[in-house]
Amino acid sequence: MNRPGTTKFQRGAISVVTPLLLLLIVTLSVLALDGARLYALRSDMQALVNVAAQAGASATQSCGGLTPSVATVRQRALTAARAQGFTGEDADLLVQVGVLEDADDDGVLAFDAVNFIEESNAVLVSLTRSEPISLLLPQSTFGSLDLTVNAAARKEVVATISAAGGLASVGGDGTLLGGLLGAVLGQPGFALDPTSLSSLENATVRLGDLLTDLGVNQVVDLLPLDADQLASALGDVAGLAGPVADLLDDIAAAPGIETIQIGDVIDVVENASVPDDSEFPIYDLVISLVLNIAEQQQAGSDGVIALPVNISSLSIPLVANIEAVDLSLHVGEPPTVKIGPARQDKDGNWRTRFYAPDITLQLTAEAELLPISLGPLLEFSLAELDVPLAVNAGGGGGALVAADCASGSGNSVEFTVEVEREVARIVTGSLDSDGSLIAAPLDANVGRLRLLGLPALNGILHLNAEVDGTVPGVTETVTMDPRYNLYCDPVDGCDEIGYSDEGDGVSGLDLDIVINEASLLETSLGSLNLNLLLNPIVDLVEGLLETVVESLGEALINPLLRTLGVGLGSISVNVSAASQDSVQLIENIAVVGAEE
Length: 596
Fold this sequence. Notes:
With about 600 residues, the protein is α+β, with helices and mostly antiparallel strands. It is about 30% helix and about 35% strand. Residues about 165-170 have low confidence and may be disordered.
C-alpha cells in the first residue's frame, strides 16, 4: 500500500520528466532529420567532386594531348562541377594534379600531388563545406560541422613503342640481314628469302600468349626470364613456319644468349599496366635479340663482328668498280621495345624513352679505277686502292611526350613523340674496341701510268687523303598520323602506326675529301714531264674516293642499317600496341606528398 506522500512524489516526477522526454524525443527527431540532411548533402558533395575529378583527369599530361595545363584541368573540373549543381565560389573547389601510386607498397593507392603537370596522370578534387548541425535547433548550442570530401581520378594510355625496326624495316635488305644472322648464329651463308623477311616483318605476338607459354601470370614476372625462353616462346605461339621458325630456334641456341634477359629486350616503365591482348612486333623483338647477342659476341680485342658481304648481290655502280668489301659491325647499345605512358618522372625525364640501335660499321673497300686516257698514247689506272672507312650510323632516340586519349564515342588515341636524330658520320679510318670512330688518313703509293711502247710505272702517286662526311642531326616533335585505333580485330590483330625520319640519307651526306699530300714518285716517262699530269691524276683519284663512299652508302651501308631499324642519318619509330583503361575513380583517397 502506497503512502499518500509517495504518490504525490511520483506524480511530480512524471510532470517533470515527461516534458524532458518529449523535448529529448523532439531533439533526437530533429537531429535524425538533420543527420539525414547532412548525409544527403555529403553524398551530393561526393557526387560533385567525382564528376569534377573525372572531367579534369582527361586533361592531365598522360591524356591531355600536346598542350596540357593546370588551368585547363581546373576549368574542366569546374565546368563539370557547375553542371552537377555546384554553386559555390571557384576557389571553394580545390583541384590538384598528381599521380596515383602505391606509396607504401601495400597495395593501397594514394594520391601524390606534383609540382609540374608533365608528371601527372590523375586529378584530386576536394570540397569543404561548413554546415550547421541543425537547421531547427540553435546553432549557438549545437554549432556547425565541416563536411570534407575528395575524389581522385586517373586516366592514362600505355603504349608499346620501339625504334628497333618494325614498319621501318620495309626497304631493308634480306641478304644483308641474312649475313648478320649468319655471323651471330655461326652459320656462314645463312639466307633469308624475301618471303621469309616479309613474314617476319608482318608477324606479331600477343602478350597473353607469351605469358601462358612461359608459365607466368604478368609481365613483371616475364622480364627476369632468360632471352632464349623468349625466342623459343615466339616460335611456339606466333604461328610461324619454315625458315622463320627455324631462325627463332637458332636464335634460342645462339652463343651469348644465355647472358641476356627478356628485360633487355622488353622494357616496361614502372607500374605501367600492360593488358594481355597487347601485341609485340616479332621483327622488332628479333632485331633486339640479335643485336643483344652480337653485343655479347663482340667482346674480343677488336670489339667487332665480321659480316660476310657478297659484292655481286649489291647494286654498286660500275664506275666505282669495287672489287671486294670487308665489313664488320659493332653494337654500342641494342634497342628495346618500350612500354609506358606519355609523362615525366620527378626528375623531369620522360618515362617512356626509346632508342634506335647504336651501331658503328668498319669496312675496307678494294676499289679499282679502269684505264683512263690522259693524252695521246698515255693512260692512267688504279689496279687496287684499299679505302678503309668507319661509319657511325647516327641513329638516336626519343620519347613519348603526349597522348590525346580516346573519349566519348571515339576509340582512337593520338600519339606525339619527340625524335632526336643524331649526327651520322663516315670517315677514313677504323673503330676502336669500344666502337668509337678513329679517323685516320689513307696513305699509300697508288696508280699505274702507261705510255705506249714503254714499261708501265706502278705506284706512281704517293697519296695521303682523308674522307669525312656527315649527315646533320635534328630534334623534332612529331604527331603521328593517323591516330591509333585501340580496337584489336580478332583476325587482323591490333593497329600499328609509325613515323620514319629518312633524313636525306646518302644524298644528304656533306662529304669532304681532303688531299693532304699528293706527289708523283717519278718525274718523267720517256721524254714526258710527268709533273704536268699531277693535277689531272689527283682529280681522278679524288673523284674515285667520292664515288666509292657514295656507292657503298647507297648499296651497302644504308640498306644494312635500314634492316636494323636505322639508316644513315635516319630514325624510325612505331607504335604496335596501346591500352587505355577506363577512368579509375577513388573516393576519399589518402593524400601523400602534397606540394604547394
